[in-house]
Amino acid sequence: MAQVSLRNVRKSFGAVDVIKGVDIDIADGEFVVFVGPSGCGKSTLLRMIAGLEDITDGDLEIDGVRMNDRQPKDRGIAMVFQTYAIFPHMTVRENVAFGLTINKTPKAEAAAKVAEAARILQMEHLMDRKPSQLSGGQRQRVAIGRAIVRDPKVFLFDEPLSNLDAALRMDMRMEIGKLHQSLGASMIYVTHDQVEAMTLADKIVVLKDGLVMQVGTPMDLYHAPDNLFVAGFLGAPSMNFIDVKLTEMESELATVENAAMQPIKVAHKGRALSVGGRGVLGIRPQYLHPVAPSEGMLHGKVALTERLGAETVVEVMLKDGEKVIAALAEDRILAPGTEIGLRFDAAQAHLFADDATQRKAVH
Amino acid sequence: MALPGFGLIAIFIILPFFFAIALSFTNQRLISPNPTQFIGMANYSRLLGVGVTTIQPERDDEGEIIRNAAGAPEYPRLRTIIRGNPDFANLAGMREWFSWERSDEARTIVLARDVVFMKALVNTLLFVIIVAPVQATLALGLALLINQRLRGISFYRAVYFMPVVVSIVVVSLLWRFIYDGNNGLLNNMLSALTFGWFEGHDWLGDPSTALGAIMVMSIWQAVGFHMVIWLSGLQTISPTLYEAAAIEGASKAQTFRYVTWPGLRNTAVLILIVITMQAFALFAQIDVMTNGGPRDSTQTIVFQAVERGYGRQDISGGSTISVLLFLLVLTISLIQGFLTREKT
Questions:
Q1: Residue where one domain finishes, among candidates A233, A260, A291
Q2: Are residues A247 and A302 in the same domain?
Q3: Is B121 helix (H, G, I), strand (E, B) or coil?
Q4: Of A8, A354, B58, B152, which cross-links A58 as Cys (Cβ 3.0–4.6 Å)?
Q5: Among A348, A194, A339, A175, which residue's Cα sits nearest to residue A267?
Q6: How many CB pairs under 8 A join A and B?
């Protein structure tokens, strides 16, 4: 049980900066998920906390103690790897007890700890098998067991579910959630899967190119993204971005419009926008509602529909040639070519300053 | 499709193999006016025949042991037993291999029908028993050293591998200069290091050091090859296993014991078998450096096979030695395979 804090942490491989100054505070018992696209530095950051990578600059503190120069084993952490990293020649029991064996823990104490971990993970019946006789999910369970036995202050998970198939991934995701509740330890979890991030996290850290884009609860990030990148990264299908022109700015609201849309008023949240300049309007597909062609704010033709049963995803070609996606919470048949209008609540739309780099890098 | 390749293998590998087995039961010579005859196991008994005899010291009329000037008991001459003595017909034609004295009372003599072959057999086994573990261990040590990400590490890899690329005959010639008794590199170096106290030694000319010298040189020559095999084994071990071990706090020795060594199991089996087979095939070094001498102290099985087959034109004798070597290597490989099998 511990607090973790990163202060202006940096990492460079030679001339290449991978982590460019990251500040994160993790409270005791918190479940924090680092999420971001491939190459954003999330795994590197985790490995720096684990001590597997040196910290080029900045401070890492666990429970107020500076850990930069401590060996991994002295940091009070345990890590679960994407590729399990369990020892193929050892039985499950030996794998789980590995840390205890090399620390020469008394046999009775070690056996008790291993039995406890096996009970928590419900794998008592697997203890005498070799890893080659286990499924992927069971192997990852063994790796988690090895972490539990260390009784760490902080659990580190490096994409632990990426090698599992979809069904198993959901089971294990729930198990990790339960594990967090029952152990109450701080956990740091790295993933590129936004569903894992949204469901597991107390706090999500969105990273991009070695910088923190936004930190907050899953719902904060979903409903109030700070920037285009976070807005586009979370949510499926991803948020629609519509280029708009600002015609008026008030203290709270800005009036925006474009060729396919009548002027509407949207909160600008003090972002770097100016009258006459360009901005980007973001609307989640779930908040676009189909109406008669003459009504609504957006007008266009249906280009494609995907019926998923409970949901219908419609791609609409707007009059100015841009495409938006609407996700309707019902099963609707909309023939391609049909004229359609789309209505949305301006309070659910987000106005961002245009930033091409943040728009492109999504997924 | 495979016929040309298979045909070559059949002609140059499979056929000679069966030829050797067949010829070992005959008295075939390289060039001979006489027709080849089937002689059964005679070749084998001629090579492998051993006997043991115990001889009593000679006694004078009172039954006292006769002693020579130095006080050692005198024994009757061995030839009284092995030459035309009807009491010991089974030992006829054998020669002394080695002997030891049990107190003053008797001397036990082990006789062999072919003492040179026996020496070759012992030398070869000695060579295998010493070279295989030493070479494998050294190669593993080197592999661990060069399996690091350091600047210029490929330079060291190249250096260690260089002797493997050079022909063994050339290496043997070079080492003959190194071991030279008068002005060899080794003697000069030892002399320089000990400020002249070391006066030089004829390494290859002394029966007690010749085989050892060849072992050292053979280990040096092939260690790079096995190092590369170990290295390939090391690089198949997943780096995350090392990271997991580091997080658990394993020391270097524990990491080697729990991660590296188990990961090298299959490589170890391969290396052990390859080194053993290579060591049994010891020939070129002997042929170039010592020709089996001095006093048969560096005779080996393959050298004897070649020496008999071509040197003495005794094709059947050479074949017999080859077949024996085959059986020996096969047996040892099977034992090794059994001992290192995957336990489930």
A1: A233
A2: yes
A3: helix
A4: A8
A5: A348
A6: 60
- Domain end call among A233, A254, A273: A233
Claim to verify: residue A221 and residue A256 sit in the same structural domain: no
Same domain, A115 and A225: yes
Q: List the domain range (segments joined by +) for residue A274.
A: 240-360
Distance from CA of A205 to the nearest CA of B (A): 24
Domains plus CATH for chain B? 50-112 (no CATH), 116-339 (1.10.3720.10)
Contact A95, A60 (CB under 8 A): no
- Residue contact A85–B240, C-beta within 8 A: yes
Q: What is the CATH number of the domain that holds A133?
A: 3.40.50.300
Q: pLDDT tens for chain A, 363 residues: list them.
A: 588 999 999 999 888 999 999 999 999 999 999 999 888 889 999 999 999 999 999 999 998 889 899 888 888 899 999 888 899 889 999 999 998 988 888 999 899 999 988 988 888 888 999 998 888 888 988 999 999 998 889 999 999 888 888 888 888 899 899 999 988 889 999 998 888 999 999 999 999 999 999 999 999 999 999 889 999 888 888 899 988 888 888 888 888 888 878 888 888 887 888 888 888 999 999 999 988 888 888 888 999 999 988 889 999 998 888 889 999 888 888 888 888 889 998 888 999 888 777 765 444
Q: Cβ distance A165 to A135 under 8 Å?
A: no
The order of strands in the sheet holding B50-55 is B50-55, B106-112, B95-102
Phi-psi region of A37 (alpha: psi -120 to 50; beta: other; left: phi over 0): beta
**Distance in Å, alpha carbon of B259 to nearest chain A alpha carbon:** 7
Q: Which two tokens stand for residue A96?
A: 């789980």
What average pLDDT does the segment B181-195 reach? 84
CB A21 within 8 A of CB A10: yes
Is there a single domain that holds both residue A50 and residue A139?
yes
Alpha helix locations (H) across chain B?
3-9, 15-23, 42-48, 79-82, 115-146, 153-165, 168-178, 185-193, 207-235, 239-248, 252-255, 261-263, 265-280, 284-289, 301-306, 315-339
| A247 & A355 share domain | yes
Put simply, whether A71 touches B (Cβ < 8 Å) is yes
CA distance A351 to A243: 10
DSSP tag of A72: G
Residue A247 shares a structural domain with residue A222: no
Nearest residue to B304 (alpha-carbon basis) of B283, B279, B330: B283
Rounded to the nearest angstrom, the gap between the alpha carbon of residue A300 and the centroid of all alpha carbons in its chain is: 33
Question: What is the DSSP secondary-structure string of A204-238?
Answer: EEEEETTEEEEEE-HHHHHHS-SSHHHHHHSSSSP
A6 interface with B at CB cutoff 8 Å: no
Closest residue in B to A151 (Cα) is: B248
The DSSP call for residue A345 is -
Can you tell me the ipTM of this complex? Answer: 0.82
Q: What is the CATH number of the domain that holds A288?
A: 2.40.50.140
Q: In chain A, how many domains are there?
A: 2
Kindly list the residues from chain B whose CB atom is less than 8 angstroms away from the CB atom of residue A83. Answer: 238, 240
Q: Is the pTM of this model over 0.80?
A: no
Contact between residue A326 and residue A279 where contact means Cβ atoms under 8 Å apart: no
